[in-house]
Amino acid sequence: MDIMKTAVLILPGVLDISLGITLDVMNTANRLCQLAARPALFDVTLTGTGRRRERSGSGLEVGPLARMSDLPAPDLVLLPGANRATRGELEDWLSTRDVLKAMERVGGWLEGGAAVGASCVSTFALAQVGLLDGRMATTSWWLAPWFRERFPRVDLDMARMVVSDGPVSTAGAALAQADLMLALVARHGSEELARNCARFLMLDHRVSQSRYAIASHLARQTPTLQRADRWLQTRLGEPVTLAMLADALHMTPRTLSRHFASAVGMSPIQYVQKLRVERATQLLETGHASIESVAAQVGYADPSMLRKLLRRERGVTPRGVRPRAGRAATGE
């Protein structure tokens, strides 16, 4: 393993928890390398576009920062997330001179052979200057519909927690930065080193962010999705078909399917399944009904279908969802 000259880019409003986990994973990896009598993996420099210090999203000062223009070309460039949660806040942040200037420099480093890792809204910064065009990438789940609309040349994958395409790796929101960092440790160090970092920092291995997405929040993206969500929420215990939903919204099934695909990246039936899993999870967490009863309440006569969806969407079994006290009451 060769030491990686690593530039951590500190932009205005950098997300504190994202920056912290970035530095903690690298520090842990370096300590573990030293304990094994091997050279450190990361040579870390905090960098920015010019100011000596930058304010984080919670108002803390981060620094001292080296100027990007003064740095030798790094081997690895890391972009933690930023504390910009709404579309308006994000649009303002993306249009700032700091972000645009920084992405110009990152593009040059990428062209020169550097690897790049970004999470949360920093993926938007890469995408707006074309650095993700033609690549697979991911981003914060609640911003995915806007990302698809704004950057159609990016192949957005919202199923995985971390997506690597060539030298560029992207991840979801906030603590997905931990998953990104462990993936980079595995890629540039070793799988064993990444596993040991995860153990020392008590980080779980997570491969998908779909379990964290809230379907009804995604539905707020368009009036059509809002109407669909309202109609479905009152019929989760009933049989629902694409034709029935399309008829209720006065659309053809084909048009409705296209609308769902472009807005939230899933089919109407996949959306129904996500709603049912969310309702079932709530029922299992807060009540004592059997899995058979819960399955029936969310439209599945066969509880094995609900078990399958829980494993796929949440990575758990019904027993894993229910609080410990509830398991004893239901005999699970």
From TrEMBL:
It comes from the Bacteria. One of its GO terms (molecular function) is DNA-binding transcription factor activity. Keywords: Transcription, Transcription regulation. It holds the Pfam family HTH_18. The keyword Lyase does not apply. InterPro entries: Class_I_gatase-like, Homeodomain-like_sf, HTH_AraC, INH-QAR. Residues 226-324 form the HTH araC/xylS-type domain. This is Transcriptional regulator, AraC family. It comes from Methyloversatilis universalis (strain ATCC BAA-1314 / DSM 25237 / JCM 13912 / CCUG 52030 / FAM5).
